[in-house]
ferric-chelate reductase (NADPH) (Vanrija albida), 631 residues
Amino acid sequence: MSSSATSVSAAASSAVSKVASATKAAATTVKIDKVKRLAHRKTGMTYQWYIITGCVFGLGVWYAISLVRSSYLRRKGAAARAAGTSKESAAAASGGSSAANVPSALGVMFNNYRNVAVLPLYIYQRSTLNEWFFTIAYTAIVIALGLRASGSQNTWDIANPMGMVAFAQMPFIVGLASKNNVLSALTGISYEKFNYLHRAAGRVCVLTTALHTFAWIKKGLGKHGPGDVVFTTGVVAAVGLLMMFLTSFQPIRKMFYEFFLIAHIAFALMFIVAAYLHWPDFDYWVWPCLLIWGLDRFVSMARMIVINKAWLLPFAKRRAEHSACKVELVDPNVVRITVNRPILRWIPGQHAYVTMPQVAALRYEQHPFTLATIPDESGDAVFIVRAQTGFTRRLVNSLTTDVTTDINAYIEGPYGTTHRMNHFDTVVLVAGGTGITYALSHLLDIIKHGREGNTAVGVVHLVWNVRQGANVAWIAPFINAALEKGSGNTRVVLSVYITRSHASDEPNADGTDDADVDPNGVDTPATGSDSSTTEVNEKDRDHSEKYVAASGLSPAAAAVTRFYHGRSHVEHILRSDLAASTADGAGLGVAVCGPTSLLLDSRRAVFKVNSASAVLQGQKPLSLHCQTFGW
Ligand SMILES: Cc1cc2nc3c(=O)[nH]c(=O)nc-3n(C[C@H](O)[C@H](O)[C@H](O)COP(=O)(O)OP(=O)(O)OC[C@H]3O[C@@H](n4cnc5c(N)ncnc54)[C@H](O)[C@@H]3O)c2cc1C
């Protein structure tokens, strides 16, 4: 055999042996992975994910059914309205109870206790029973799975199982915190509404990490004592988690939001990396968590780049064009921001993040604001912003004229899922202060659908509690334009309640100063008392004209607007709107965005009006949606 043939055969045999050893290594990895997976399945933590998947599937099916139902009711109601065959409200038409109404009455009773009533503040925040149910159920199931794992080893040693529970929370916690959230897309539940579950899973992680730590201390640390990498990384992970927990209490979130945000991300990274190094075998919880996080950041960045045409930003002239915005001081403490970004499309109730590096203390801090209008051919998006104490205050303070176009704004969005309203017979939109942004976008959307003959809504009633009548000027241009184009078969009613009271009229009132209180204004009594509201039109017509003149409303808009002194009495409003409602669509829909007192008042009102006995008598069920400016 020649020497070249010998070397070829040697090379071939070495290649074969390399392939064989690579195959063996791959097989071993697969085997280890399989063993790890099986071991983990034995501990039961994969069941947590089966349960979550099952719940998401159930909620997804429910969401799909509700989409189909609302689309059907919207078309049915619109057709009846166009044909002039709308049915009179069953509440007015019938007098007696009917067995056919029993399921609806039971549904209303269930929904009232589950979703409308809130538990007292002293228990924990103002949560609904629904939120409590899911918080407790989630915590109980996950801890039970951990205990089951301890029990299955017949040792009742909770140390490692609790560590596993903590690991298994990671993807869920991060997934629920992301703005670009798959769970929200599948279930229609907005990411900010999921925030309570993010907190619940976070608390479970803190609790189980503590149990894991103390159980190991009690057992004695053995070979993993001080100096060992498992010990060091475990301590770092636990400290990171504890710091994350301590810096996320509500007072800190409220007072130092940017600090909270930076600390939260930094400590989360500290925890995740240290936990991975602590026990790399559980990397299959860590990688998905980092992947979800990375994807969220990537999608957010991509949105920001596309909406603001970031590839043109290096060119000064194009930058000015694509980051331009108009800021108008419409009140000493309120600005209206208009940006022209034709590519940004959204649905009513959604919000977007605004970055203004020239104004912000931390150059690229982002703040969420509700999109107050609806997308149209102009490509304009409008935000109405009340100055708080941080970025928003700096924005107001930076203005030297009432209107400026010198500030650059970068927009990212839209975010949040919306509450559909066009399938209701009557819609009542209740707003307090800048909560008008949420209500206005729905109002404009319903008017547009009315014009297109594409809504079941016969009456849309905007109820706005605002400090001064002249504040109507914030929204007058949009209402004037919408009504000028017409609202088809949909009747529009605007009720403005002039409260002249302090900062608690705002959806994000906590921590707001009262500096801008009208010095001549009077504090009105809390909502709910009949005497708190007096119709200005009836009492003092001059006043009404004065308000109309100051508000900038067109004659068509002024004709449908009534001004009142005092706060709105939501229960009265609902009762009278319900009595006048037709019954082709889904009954009466109520959406509220405002301060806590207004939300509570509206909840109470819906609870009372939407009673099971009334529904048994034939009254159509009410549907309530509450929106807040925070999480
Ligand atoms: C979904 C959503 C929609 C909103 N829509 C509007 C709107 O249409 N009009 C309006 O005036 N306000 C709106 N807000 C509230 C607005 O985002 C805050 O008032 C604003 O970010 C306060 O900035 P600041 O630095 O001046 O706040 P600070 O004075 O520092 O804090 C005031 C309050 O705002 C909260 N906050 C501060 N920064 C943020 C942030 N980046 N993200 C979330 N909350 C923050 C704080 O926790 C605190 O409770 C909305 C908030 C959310 C969550």
User: Anything to note?
Assistant: The longest strand covers residues 459-466. The pocket of flavin-adenine dinucleotide is lined by residues 192, 253-254, 257, 351, 366-370, 383-386, 388-393, 434, 437, 508, 510-511, 629-630 (CB under 6 Å).
